[in-house]
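User: Structure tokens for both sequences below?

Assistant:
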Amino acid sequence: MLEPIGPLPQSVYWRRRAAAAGASVLAVVLLAWIIGGLVEADDQHPVHGTADASGLGQEQSGTRAAAGRVSAPPSSPGPDDRRTSATATSSTGVPAPTSAAVVPTTRPNPVTTTAPPPPPAACADAVTQVVAVPDGPSFPVGARPLLRLRITNAGPVPCTRDVSRRLREIVVLGADGARLWSSNDCYGPPQPDVRLLLVNQPVEFTVRWAGRTSAPGCPVNRKTVQAGTYQVVGRLGALVGAPSPLVLT
């Protein structure tokens, strides 16, 4: 069967067999190439509802890369990393959050202002004491006795009082109560003199009596007071103090 049989030369039949074999091989190769192309096209267009093979490959490769990053040992920190890690780690060893810490704002304490105390009130007559006393128990006739007028605040709190010359007065009375001399007879009324009177701290005024009589308007003709016992009375406005004895010898 292998030997060609026919009227033509044997070489012709061998060439025909070689061409047929080559054509068969070429057809097989061409068929394999076509089938491979179809299979590759199906792989590039997956059916709906199934994951793309290339996408799965990328996800798997990304997962492997992330796992590699997590499992990889940390590199040695640089100078800035050491500072950051030192400040970000608390005393318990638990890393603190690296975000900027919120600094609590301190609200200033409300300023409490104390209202200034009201000014002292005027001294009422009920708490004001007035008294006039001589500077000694007795004086010779013709001497100039020193007389003192004391004004005292006997109330519970300090207060103010006008103690000007037109209001305060020392009067010398005779044994029968007659008016002999006044400290205001020969002085014109000055300006008001309002003072703060502290509790139980007297304000004192002094005047020297020439030992002669006087009258309102300060007349020129005045008489020398003779030896005897007289009374010294202090006054502040409507307030009149108790009399004190004054002896002239």
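Moving on to the next sequence.
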Amino acid sequence: MAVGLPLFTILESAGLPVMGHPWREEMVNTTRNESWALFGDMTFAATPELNLTAGLRYTKDRKRFTWFNGPFSSPGLEQVSAPGALYNAILGAPLFPDEAMIDVATFFGLVVGSDIIFDSGALEGVEVSRRASFSDFSPRFVVDYTPMPGLMLFASASRGYKAGGFNSVQINSFFEPESVWNFEGGFKSELMDKRLRLNASLYRFTYKNRQSLSLESVDGSGLPQYVTSSGDSTATGVDFETSFAVAPGFSLSAVGAFIDSKWDHRIEQGVDVSGQPTGEPSFRAVLSARFDREVGGIGNLFANASYSFTSKQRINDATRASDAALENNPVFGELVDFSQLTKLRASREIVNARAGWRSADDRVSVSLFAENLFDVRTPRSLNLISAHTLGTPYVRMDRPRFWGVELGVRF
């Protein structure tokens, strides 16, 4: 507060103990939502090997939302008082009787006349309501073909929908409904007497008004807020999955995904990021091994381990501008040492493992487990929601190594 709000710094320097007191503001929301849908699918077996499927879904949504922002509350500041003469000297104008004792909360309300976080102006203390209704038809088409036992080829086109709505921290705000067309084609297979499973697909998503949370400067607020904003985007990718039964009770598996996701049209934090990444990493994969074998008549011994890899986050100009604004700010720049954050949004590698015993009747089990076995500490995100106002940026790290013993009993 001393950094972000100069008025309190001035009052503190004048001898008033204003720092360290709780400050409370509220934006109270109520909502009433109604949603109903009709849907159906029909599959036509054109040949024994070829199926054609068509479906349709109709959705109707009605929403009512209210905002109510009351005055701030700070009981501690209500106990700190000073003569009007002190306030007049600070303001350079005779606004208060010199001898009148006025508490700091009253002074702030009279001079600033608003909240810090939720500055609603004339709407403070007024309940604001808004209604909206949305409807959508979403079709689905699928073709699947089985040229031989254990192999299926497929292709599909489908439309998805998400209702629009309201941002809880912005009075009378509204965002449009989201829609997406998904085109996908691929194959699913089971080979080698079903010991080997291999699946893969190629897809493309085309979003209109894709809804996502974004940290934005909000009119009338001393702090940026997480609000739902929208933009059009396109994503193209490949998914694959495979598993192989090496021996009875022992199997290996792998799943992975490549994706190229970019905004077609989007303004984020005042920056045009059209044609730039939406933030998703381009590649994810998980390799795993599993062992589960009966031992004599005492039950089963089991063990599994997994290795997961996520490539570095693909950032856009809005994120770069936000980082640069903080790093180069003469007041706040020293709060973050970017030389210590070389792995910020970097690739991530995590190993998890578990081993244990399970009774023959599957009722009792005991296992030793470890998550993030090698204690990888990667800074995942830099949060600036309170950096420029309160001087408190913070970094969110990966969860450190976590291990334990688990006892299970089934009744």
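User: Anything stand out in the second?

Assistant: The helical segments are 6-13, 75-78, 84-91, 104-111, 317-327, 387-390.
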